TrEMBL record:
PANTHER family: ESTER CYCLASE, POLYKETIDE CYCLASE SNOAL-LIKE DOMAIN
SUPFAM superfamilies the record matches: NTF2-like (SSF54427)
Protein name (Swiss-Prot/TrEMBL): SnoaL-like domain-containing protein
Organism encoding this protein: Flammeovirga aprica JL-4
GO biological process, one term: polyketide metabolic process
InterPro entries referenced in this protein's UniProt entry, alphabetically: Cyclase_SnoaL-like, NTF2-like_dom_sf, SnoaL-like
SnoaL-like domain mapped to chain residues: 11-100, 139-237
Domain of life of the native organism: Bacteria
Gene3D superfamilies hit by this protein: 3.10.450.50
Length: 257
């Protein structure tokens, strides 16, 4: 582990497995803001979830962990009311966790290329290229996902190396094209309306967005997309898509983003 804040986040998530209470002290009880809409705000909300854990408790396996300034973000495999794939984002102030966002979805079988929601590269490289890689992903999300422009697609995405971990999509631009064709033919939508955050460390970039997904006109969803880059091009992608419940069902007033 190469940073104290990363160590704290991994210890907190591993406490699901061990029952160790020490990592709770890494959360600032006076300022903790919760964006998981199924959980009450503050440390009390976190505690309520833990008290209502099923027999055997929750389990967490941190597959990837990254840091961007005051933010630490993880790609985690959970047993949390069933097997889940998740991204968690934690914001720190003065060495304490003060804010948390996440996106969770059920674990699915391998995709048409045999890839899972968790496998693939984990090694962080090219830290000196963090900002440049952010710009590539910003451009991809803005041009391709938000505005449907395909002019620079093969410049932004390496067409011969692109590996896909979305459970329904195969590798390569052909797999992406087939998925888009299926959506069009079945009156389904995958719309990105707004990007809320872009976080990165080296060759990995995470975007947090909202939009619509599913049978037209689509459900209101949060998109968390993790991209890996090589030589200024996207070469690998993982994602978690989660419906955003109506406000009447929220357990806190902080919003998803």
């Amino acid at each position: 582990m190469d940073s104290p804040n990363k160590e704290k986040v991994v210890a907190l998530l591993n406490s699901f497995n061990t029952g160790d209470q020490t990592p709770i002290s890494y959360i600032n009880p006076e300022k903790y803001i919760q964006h998981n809409l199924d959980v009450g705000d503050g440390l009390a909300g976190f505690g309520a979830v833990m008290k209502n854990a099923p027999e055997g408790g929750f389990k967490a396996n941190v597959v990837r962990v990254f840091q961007d300034g005051d933010y630490v973000f993880t790609h985690t495999e959970y047993d949390f009311f069933g097997p889940k794939a998740a991204f968690d984002v934690f914001r720190f102030e003065d060495g304490k966790i003060v804010e948390h966002w996440d996106n969770l979805a059920a674990v699915t079988p391998p995709n048409p290329s045999g890839r899972t929601q968790f496998d693939g590269t984990t090694n962080i490289t090219d830290r000196e290229k963090t900002n440049a890689n952010k710009k590539v992903v910003w451009q991809f999300v803005d041009e391709v996902l938000l505005n449907g422009k395909m002019d620079n697609l093969t410049t932004l995405v390496n067409p011969t190396k692109y590996l896909q971990h979305n459970s329904a999509v195969a590798d390569g631009l052909d797999g992406l094209g087939a998925a888009l064709k299926y959506f069009a033919e079945n009156d389904m939508v995958m719309v990105y309306d707004k990007v809320h955050k872009v976080l990165a460390e080296g060759n990995f970039v995470l975007t947090m967005s909202e939009g619509k997904f599913g049978k037209a006109p689509g459900n209101h969803v949060a998109y968390y997309d993790l991209f890996r880059l090589e030589n200024g091009q996207i070469v690998e992608h993982w994602d978690v898509i989660q419906p955003i419940p109506p406000k009447s069902e929220w357990k806190n007033d902080n919003g998803k983003f």
